[in-house]
Amino acid sequence: MSFRYHLLTCLAWVLLLPLQAQPNWQSATLTLIDGMTLEGEVDDRHWGFHFDDLRFRTSAKSDRQRLPLNSLMRFEINGRRYEVREITFNASPREPSQLLRQEDRAEQQRTAALLVLVEGSVSLYEYADDRGNAHFFLRRAGEPLRYLDYGRYKLEAYNGRTTYNEVNYFRSTLIGQLSGCERIRQDILQARYRRESLMDVFETYYNCGQQRSGYWLERESGIWQFGPDLGLVKGNPTYGDIEVPVFPFRRLAAWAPGLGAHAKYRFGGPHGSVAVRLGVWYHSFAVGATAPDPEEEDPAANANFQYLYNERSVHFQLGPEVILVRSRFPLFLESMAEYHRILDYQESRFLTRTVNGQTTADGVSYDFSNRGAFSLSLGAGIIAGQARLSLRGSATRRKYDTYLLNLYRLSVVGSVDF
């Protein structure tokens, strides 16, 4: 691949990198602790994680400033409401590999922005901690904030397996605070510690003849996202059955740029961490190598094995993407089934021998007709704003009449969602 092509790809990467920090300024109203109201714009990150301040500006041309949470009472941005409160919550991890015993439960206090889910005579709030774990709070009008306590704790190993239990204290709090509706008890006993499940409980409560709520957070719906993909791909061909001559090279590989585009549908509601991705990817690379023949006995002869592999292909991709850890920089896994349409493919293997200016070549040159191939790729990555960076691996097997090709690819891919 030419130096110019690599240079253009690097320049495209440089142009994409600023997008990872691209702000999303949205109209906002902020109320300070002294009661003063500010109108302007806030860099909206949707905050499925803990944060300590807001980036604020009064207009697109004004200077930006950071407002710490402890200077705010509340704020509203892009249709979402937040209340700033001092909270105490169960900071024990919930990941199975990190669980604590219940007697080692960890609590934490901090100033936090609580997302308002329901506001009325009884209000419901959500907070996401540093691990991306959701915590919920309830408040009756004129009363203090109450924590809906939930925990997952490690138990002793049983038959070689570690087990855990979930402590759902939040259900008894809901039963006590949402009294006056007889049919709600069964809903609460079946409720899970999830936003959608708890909002369903509150919907039952407000439909049970109680006072009407003044505000509900709009439920998330599925969205389509589109964007470009750019990356570097390491191609590594290996071989199965093949005719002579014997070829001595091992670990042949080459890096080359790749480019493409994708369309993605992200589900809403409780399945908002899952998306289905449809992509197209173009990859062209060549591998060449030369090595002396170790068995050549004539000192006057110059004998070398020569190898060349060249391929251009378009890959059509379809598969799921799942966000594993919600934080400032979420982590995700992706898996894709790929159909490769091979546009061009050549491979040659020769032993060339030069004696007294005369050259002879013995080998095979392959030029198969264009064919399709299938593979499965797996990857993981990190999200920063609208951009994401992933590491993918894939394997393809192509079987021909006298030849078996295994082609492994390792890709570093950057993409942007719009």
Overview of the molecule:
By secondary structure, this protein is mainly beta. It folds into two domains: 79-216, no CATH class; 223-416, Porin, CATH 2.40.160. The protein is built from four helices and 22 strands. The strands form three sheets. Strands 1, 2, 3, 4, 5, 6, 7, 8, 9, 10 and 13 form an eleven-stranded antiparallel beta sheet that branches. An eight-stranded antiparallel beta barrel has the order 14-15-16-17-18-20-21-22. The longest helix is centred in the first third of the chain and has 14 residues, at 3-16.
SSE arrangement:
Elements lengths: L2 H14 L8 E8 L4 E7 L9 E5 L7 E4 L3 E6 L2 E11 L16 E13 L2 E7 L5 E7 L5 E3 L2 E8 L2 E7 L1 H9 L6 H7 L4 H12 L8 E2 L6 E17 L14 E13 L7 E19 L9 E24 L5 E25 L2 E9 L5 E13 L2 E13 L4 E13 L2
Antiparallel strand pairs: 1-2, 1-5, 2-3, 3-4, 5-6, 6-7, 7-8, 7-13, 8-9, 9-10, 11-12, 14-15, 14-22, 15-16, 16-17, 17-18, 18-19, 18-20, 20-21, 21-22
State the order of secondary-structure elements, H for helix, E for strand. HEEEEEEEEEEEEHHHEEEEEEEEEE
Report the uncertain regions.
13-22, 241-245
Structural class by SSE content: mainly beta
Strand content: over 45%
Distance between the termini: 31 Å
Total strand count, please? 22
Please give the share of residues in helix.
10-25%
- Give the helix tally: 4
Supply Rg.
Answer: 30 Å
CATH architecture of the largest domain: Beta Barrel
Sheet with the most strands, sense and barrel status: 11 strands, antiparallel
Shape: elongated
Domain unit count: 2
CATH topology of the largest domain, what is it called?
A: Porin
Average predicted confidence as pLDDT: 85
Provide the CATH top-level class of the largest domain.
Mainly Beta
